[in-house]
Amino acid sequence: MSKPKILFIDAYDSFSNNIVSLLTTTLQADVDILPIDPPELQPQAPNFTQKLTSLLRRYDAVVCGPGPGSPDLPHDVGLMRYVWDLEPAHLAPVLGICLGFQSLVVSCGGIIKKLKTGLHGMIREIDHAAEQPYLNEGNIFYGVPPFKATLYHSLYADIGQESIPANDWTASKWCSPAHLPDIVPLAWVYENRGDYIERILMGMKHKTRPFWALQYHPESICTEPTGHQVIKNWFSEAVRWNRENRRPTDPSPTSLSSISRLPKSSTHGAKSGLDCNGHNASNHFPWVNSNSQLASFGLNHHYGSRTIKLPIHIEVPDIVEILQGNRQDFIILDSASAKANRIGADVRGRYSIIALDVDETLKLEYRTGDKYATARCSRPQKPSLGDVSEMIHFSPGQTIWQLLAEFWTKRRVTSSEDSAPFLGGFMGFTTYELGLEGIGVTAHQERQHNRPDLCFAWVTKSIVIDHTKGTLRIQQLSPGESEGNGWTDFIIEKLLTSPIWSDGLRADFNKRTQLNQLTPPSTPDSIFAKAQIQVPDADEYESKVRQCQDFIASGDSYELCLTDQTHITRSSILSATESCPLTPLEPGKPPQTPWQLYRSLRSRQPAPFGSFIRLGGATLISSSPERFLEFSADGLCSMRPMKGTVRKSSAVSTLAQAEAILHVPKEEAENLMIVDLVRHDLHGVCGPGRVDVPKLNIVEEYASVFQMISVVEGRLPANDDDNDDKISTKKKKEEEEEEKRKTGLDVLAASLPPGSMTGSPKKRSCEILHEIEGGRERSLYSGVVGYMDAAGRGDWSVTIRSLFRWDDETRKTTTTAANNGQGHEQEVEVWHIGAGGAVTALSTAEGERDEMFTKLKGPLGVFDDEA
Ligand SMILES: C=C(O[C@@H]1C=C(C(=O)O)C=C[C@H]1O)C(=O)O
Ligand SMILES: NC(=O)CC[C@H](N)C(=O)O
């Protein structure tokens, strides 16, 4: 028997791929995905109905999915509302889910209203018609054991349920209301609102047509699997209806180009040669294979390394200070919390990675909206020749991700069993705005700058520190097998003979005197004293929280990660072209140089994903606790969304106390919403049935806060996977070839911006946040930082709890000296710190304001820290 075919109509929800996965795995079906507003199927077009019916005929059944907004707004439901009203001869069996459910209710004459308080990520016992034989005909809940399900909605169906007296409820709850004869209720949830019980319709069927619908989310990780029986029952009913009504079907594949598939289901009708980012596989970048000076950078390199013991007193910045004076660019991924975690099983941030000689490496840069990327490299050996740069033009359909993938794949190096997590390869950052471009949100005003949204350096010389083993590995990718050796010996010699290596106490003294000489001599301390700090206005922030809650109440979002930025303006220590002095902290003085700010932040707030980055005109100093995505060369992708924050205090100082605060429905729901969103992102690249949640809502301890995290894992389709579709055509082979190429980079590209920084559904939430946050760029904040190495592995953190500045954001101001009243001109630099938190229906404005200021406190504190 051929596989069932289902059409899923997607209303731009961040849970859609989870539903497609559920349908594919529980029904062994092929599921095609069609957005609610495909350009080829416009309701105003003259032959729309005919086109729609001929499309539906190709499927055994249709699912109308969840989504932001209201079923009363045509723009929010698009195509959905037309499937209910087709002529009887053209009907197809349909299952509506959430927004799809509400759309069916509206088509039957029901009214949609706002719940007293939205129920997002709330898990409730479903009261369903399991024992109603008289409803047996089409009762998809019949015989289903009790189960709990996750809800994600602000709106509900009013079918007159409130007017039924309590003592009539049991007898009437499964009866069609007299004024809405087409609606047969099949399931309810009862929500205790304190002074009354709200009755919320959770399931229905249409009296005469083949339509069923669920208000809850059957695909959520917290909906009990017992509930999956409802999906099976629905599909049996759909098949029965098709058979009994001799519904005409059309086995030919559709030619609609808006239709897509998750990877690894069978191939009919899927886009050929296009991956999740719309790359066309056959449309390669000629630049990558050209022999231009930059395109051949790092090709045919071999790996060499030497490992030495790391003395206990040596820290990551010490190593950089020994090896990297007088440089402009830096990339340091610093697990500053690792030392604290050395005892015990917690290996978050086990490694630190220092890129060496970043000035001399190749950098690839891209700015959103551009149709090209730039490769650049400086020539320190021949400074008179200046920097080299090449423009790499995109042809239609090409993206920066494809360029990176091609460049990366050509530089593959195999790793041995005991290799470091990073051998060399890409390291860098992306901005929040790069992520917005990927999901089609491009509402930003004309940009007043020319900064890159992505800057990756191809790092060939690096150091990996294993904090658990206490070792340091010096490694190089170099053209000849043994060419690296001389260099690694030289670096080891330099480390071992440096004064601080062998003698911790003496070294500390030496380090200070030695490096003090690097401090620009002409910088009077008074200049630094007055940093102007502009923090968000507390009342305004609270009012923004309330605006978010209005959008949540109207059904436009389920959760919004609201953020704001603090700006610190102070006299400039570093101009764009200058090297970055590695000045140590000076006792009794606040940090001045970027390096001192980094040293200060890492000791104030040691974090597993800290970093110091100077690249592409940006300086980023981060103490991020949040891993975004880690992937292995063989396709295991692990994401670690973080939601739920408690500040450490005398009242909350132990893990048990924090757990008591965080294991409450509000916090768990916030985290669950992002877990389901991340599952969707991963399903989109890994395919149906390939995503699991090994950890849900685990509380972890950090330097100044406790955080709740979850772990979501996806397995990319492997090369040798069985495809149960037996049809072997040339086209299928090509598609399989294409899918084989999926790597962690595809997951990275498909998952930005990080869901924990947007809220859900991602696209609509980002549009709303853009409006509420005043259209300002978040820039590096809410982007990601990390690496993907030459062996195919990667690790990325979310850029939070950090400060950043751009070299081009300096200006001249005139200041008046206090002692003589004279004005003098000086250059100022501006640092930015983003902070925020997830707003839900259950948030309070004061609570969110406090959370934002708590998160701001750590990074902001470095400006008046005294070493
Ligand atoms: C928005 C921030 O943090 C995000 C929001 C969190 C929350 O709402 O609990 C937790 C971690 C981050 O994903 C921030 O640090 O500025
Ligand atoms: N998940 C959904 O489909 C939600 C539907 C609708 N936007 C609501 O909030 O009620």
Automatic annotation (TrEMBL):
GO terms for molecular function: 4-amino-4-deoxychorismate synthase activity. The keyword Transferase applies. Residues 255-266 have a biased composition (Low complexity). Residues 8-236 form the Glutamine amidotransferase domain. Pathway: Cofactor biosynthesis; tetrahydrofolate biosynthesis; 4-aminobenzoate from chorismate: step 1/2. It comes from the Eukaryota. Transmembrane segments: none annotated. Its EC number is 2.6.1.85. The keyword Transferase applies. Coiled coil: none annotated. Residues 323-473 form the Anthranilate synthase component I N-terminal domain. Keywords: Folate biosynthesis, Glutamine amidotransferase, Transferase. In the C-terminal section; belongs to the anthranilate synthase component I family. This is aminodeoxychorismate synthase.
